[in-house]
Each structure stands twice: as structure tokens, then as C-alpha cells.
Amino acid sequence: MKLRRLNSSDAVFKEQLNSLLSNTDEPTVEISRTVESILADVKARGDEALLEYTNRFDDRNATLDEIEIPAAELETALAAIPSELREGLEHAANRVREFHERQKMESWSYKDKEGNTLGQQVTPLDRVGIYVPGGKAAYPTSVLMNAIPAHVAGVPEIIMVVPTPKGEKNQMVLAAAAISGVSKVFSIGGAQAVAALAYGTASVPKVDKIVGPGNIYVATAKKQVFGTVGIDMIAGPSEILIVSDGESNPDWVAMDLFAQAEHDEEACAILVCPKIEFLDAVEESIRRLLPEMERKDIIKSSLEKNGALILVKDIDEAIELVNQVAPEHLELSMTAAEPLLPRIRHAGAIFVGNYAAEVLGDYCAGPNHVLPTARTARFSSPLGVYDFQKRSSVIMCTEESASSLASTASVLAHGEGLTAHARSAEYRIKS
């Protein structure tokens, strides 16, 4: 296989890097129109359209009664999976819950010097929808990462959708739903599932927010329904950027690149290092280890299309590159990694040191693995409890404190030419 090599000292490096980073999974006009049509159809025809698209795209022959997966089936799946898998899911769930408990926002208030009580009231969303992928691979940990923060936030109703191609249900996914406290599960996916959650049908309840990753059709659908419902983010292909000082184990680094690349052909895996001999060593590890991988064809395609080995002048330049790329996952694969942490401004999740492999964050470290992609870590954050809570401002005035504020409000309202605003304030001014 041919791995892309970039050198920060080359005159064309900036153009090459921009070209590499532009390889994002953007929807074509055809995809956008297809999604728009599906959304409109489900909105207009409800369950009838939802069932038609589900049977067509998932190669099923389901009836409407078979769309919802009963709660008893979730418990049956939990009881049926091997004990080591159940223990693994429960251990991961406990760690995810413990981490997210620390994110809960609390209501607060204070009295100002004039006697007004001002504050913030925090409340959970009423109902959320979580999308769990079910195409090329099944992701029970996506259930944990999406449902547990919502549960911790106090959301009373969590609706999960997951596609089941050919009607095959992944028992680990169902078991994870049971562990996570999901309220209802529907075996639907794609843009039609997003439409059902956004608009509601006779069978699928309308939600207030949709979270969770999916393919390009799901991402496009979430973008198009935003405003009708809230969304977490527009998730693109998965990414990792590894910064090494050249003293890491090249086999470890190669495998960490593989772990990201095996998601799908659009995934992006980049290694940055100031030592060319280490880049050579990792490339040799990649060639040697790749044939052992079960998903070697996907890994090879991903690395050739979207991967790169980048030579930089020094670690300082590597950190500058990190903040420019704003990767979803960042590994600081070196012994003295922790002092670099304050210099990282843009990254979805930061894995510090040689032992903090990105895969640990995927499964069981505790922090959320639903992360901003496509350089959106410049302005957005990992999924968390705060995505399932909202804030209301609280303003309470006494007669005296209202009079003081009303005088200021009246002056400002007249200044804006809003007479009714001014008069409303003036009614509260004590004579």
C-alpha cells in the first residue's frame, strides 16, 4: 500500500494539508434532495412511509407491529449474552455514568444589592431520541454513550432507533439498551428514522432532541430537521491524530491508526512526528501488521485515501498543527505528554501518554466517545449531560427593587423608540 507522506518544510505543505483535511464526507446535491424527500414523505404520511422506507432500505418485510422492540426482548438479550460481555458492558456503563454525574448543572440564585432575586433554573429535556448505527458494524457502546448522559440529566423518556438490516437484531445493542435505561426501542434507521423522531408518527413519539452518529444520510437528515428539534452535532467520518516524539512503540502507533481506520473507508488517521526514522518504522509496522487485520481491506482503503505520515520540525510545530487540524481524537504518544496539555486548544478528546490508547475512550474510560469531527472541535464539545439539560433565567423583584430597575428600563426603552416597553416599566415606578 502507498501511504501519503507530508513534510511541513515543503513549500506546498499547507496546500497538501488542506487537501487532506477537505476529504470530508459532504453530502452531494443528490443525497440532500433524497433526504429532503424522505423527511417530507414521513412527515406527511407517518407510519406508512416509515414502514415503506424501512423495508426498502433495510431489506426487510416487516409489519408495523414489528417496528418497536418490546422491553422484554431487551431484558432477554441482556440475560442471553455471554457473561463476560455483560460484565464488560456493565463495567463500561458504570464508568460512563460516574464520569457524567460530575457534569450535571445545578440551579442557582442570588440577591443583588437592590433586593432582586436573579438566577438560573436547570431542567432536563422531556424526551430525546438516540440514533445508534447498525450498518457495517454494531456499536453497543454508542447506546451507553448516548443514553446514560440523558439518563443522568433526568430525561424521563429516551427513545432509541437502530436499523436492523434483513431484520437481524444485534443482541449486544439490545442488552446495552436494557442497561442504559432506554424507554423504547424501534428497529428503524436512516433518514426515515430521523424524520420519525423529529415529526412523530402514530407509532414513534416526537422528541425534543436527536443525538448520536450515523451515515451521511443520517447526518444530512439531522442537519435538515435542526430547528424543528435540537441535535447534538453533524458527525462526519471518524478521525485520529497521533503526535509522537519518536520514542513510542511503532507497533502500538500503527495499531492505534488501524483502530480508527477500520471504522470505514472515509475515516482519517494521521501521525505527526519530528523524526523521519520513526515514521519509517511505523510505516514498516503498518505493512507487517495489516495482513493480520480482519478488516484489512477497509483499513487499507482508509489509510490510502485519508491517512498521512507527517514530518514536522519539532514538537512545538506539531502542537501548532494539532490546533489547526482540531482532531476528533488526539493521542499525545510520548512519555512527557502531560506538560503539553495546556497548549492544546482544539481537540474532541485528548489521550495523554503512551498508555492512554484512543480505544479506551471508545469503550470504557468514562468520557463520552461522541465527539466533534471535521475540525468542529474548534467550537464544539463532546456529548455530555449538558446536552440534555436546558437553562431558564429566573427574575424576581420586590416592589422597591422593581421601581429602581424600571427607571433604567424606561430610559433605555425610550432610547430605542419602544413606547409600550417604556410604559410597562413606568407602571412599576413608585410615585
Note the gap between the termini: 85 Å
The name of the CATH topology of the largest domain is Rossmann fold
Principal-axes geometry comes out as globular
Specify the biggest β-sheet.
6 strands, parallel
List the keywords.
431 residues, alpha/beta, Rossmann fold, globular
Describe this structure in words.
This protein is α/β, with parallel strands linked by helices and 431 residues long. The chain has three domains: 5-25 and 236-365, Nitrogenase molybdenum iron protein domain (Rossmann fold); 29-105 and 122-231, Nitrogenase molybdenum iron protein domain (Rossmann fold), CATH 3.40.50; 397-426, no CATH class. 44% of the residues lie in helices and 16% in strands. It is built from 16 helices and 15 strands. The chain has helices spanning 13-21, 29-45, 47-57, 71-80, 83-101, 140-153, 171-180, 190-199, 216-225, 250-261, 276-289, 296-306, 315-325, 358-363, 399-415, 419-426, and strands spanning 5-7, 68-69, 108-111, 117-124, 127-131, 157-161, 184-186, 209-211, 230-231, 239-244, 268-273, 308-311, 329-333, 349-352, 389-396. A six-stranded parallel beta sheet has the order 1-12-11-10-13-14, sandwiched between helices. The chain has a six-stranded mixed beta sheet with strand order 2-7-6-5-8-9, sandwiched between helices. It has a three-stranded antiparallel beta sheet with strand order 3-4-15, with no helix packed on it. Strand 10 (239-244), helix 10 and strand 11 (268-273) form a beta-alpha-beta unit. Helix 2 (29-45) packs across helix 3 (47-57), helix 5 (83-101) packs parallel to helix 6 and helix 8 packs parallel to helix 9.
